[in-house]
Amino acid sequence: MENLPLGMNVDDMRQLPKHNSGGEAVFQLLKTLRARKDKYDRYLILAWTMPDPRVAEQFLLDGFEGAVTDLKTSLGPDCMEEESEYVGHYWAIPETRPFIKYKQAMVRFYEGTGEYSKAFSHSSEILSLSPEDNLGERYHLGTHLLRLDRARDALSFAQAWLAEDVARGDTFPPKGGCQFGDPFTNAIPEKVFKEVSIWTPANLLYTAALAAFKLCESPPDGNPPYAPQSHEEAEEYLWLAQDLWMEDDVWKWANSQERIKKLVLRGCNRKDCPKVETRVNQFRRCSSCQEAWYCSTECQKGHWSSHKPSCKEISRLTQEVKKFREQFRPRPTFSARPICALVVETAKKKQKVAGSEVEETTDKTAAQSDASN
Fold first, then answer.
1. Is 257 helix (H, G, I), strand (E, B) or coil?
2. 330-372 pLDDT, tens digit each
3. Which of 27, 54, 73, 139 is most buried by a 10 A CB count?
4. What DSSP string runs through 102-121?
């Protein structure tokens, strides 16, 4: 194989292991890395292309070591110490970007391998160094704490980010919420809760609810969590935390919350159909846009002429967002992702949501039929 040009782009690097033997591919990639100034981004891409998680980890660790060395060279050897003038302001300092990017990559890697103690270590340090959390680590750290059986800290952390002024973006909690203390026990006032829910992604609310249950060992009184604000947010949260909600005691608690179940019962999207679900996730969902729900195939087909424009536009935007996220937030491609395996396995066993049997939506949508015709 001819040597790759030094201008090899990200897509070339991702495709290389698919078309060449692993050893040769790695050799060529390493040769390119040594000649490029943007070597840290290249090391990240190289790590994500490795099929073996331990090999991927080694590339991440090697790149991370270089990023730490460069950071200390630029800002001084004590730049990560608590008394440093830089701590708490990392995101505003361009020299810290490669280091922070590697820290976040390590978080995602250890989430994928199920090593949550290591994921928490990197995630909490990111928040301490950059407490305004431009990268969204707060949406992961609460679940790390729950998986480490630290429900009290998880609730304290979620409450720090659910404070009214923090949720609005007026300020941020000290150390990014990692100054864990005793959580408060009163429910958020309804008026404040509604305002907070507008600004706060649902995963923090779910973290708080699950942590409160774990601490109280009984259904806590208060506000039910809102639904995630996007499919991408829901997908990411489920990837990380779904099996925590499928434990028997949590299911029993969820099933006892009639108010919560009523909030998620859907009506048929066909305007002249008055039917409403009698159990959670009973109706069929449009598999193209995943925004419309129908009580029957007949209602879905009858509503297609009205639903078609918005369905196609939502599907197009969803694909664009997915491509953007994949480009800038790649995940490991190796198969060692026990969370996903556990979620699928548990879902097959449970086949229910909040105590109700899930009706598999295997039928093709009217949108797909129309497209094929």
1. coil
2. 444 433 333 333 333 344 444 444 444 333 333 333 444 444 4
3. 139
4. HHHHHHHHHHHHT-HHHHHH
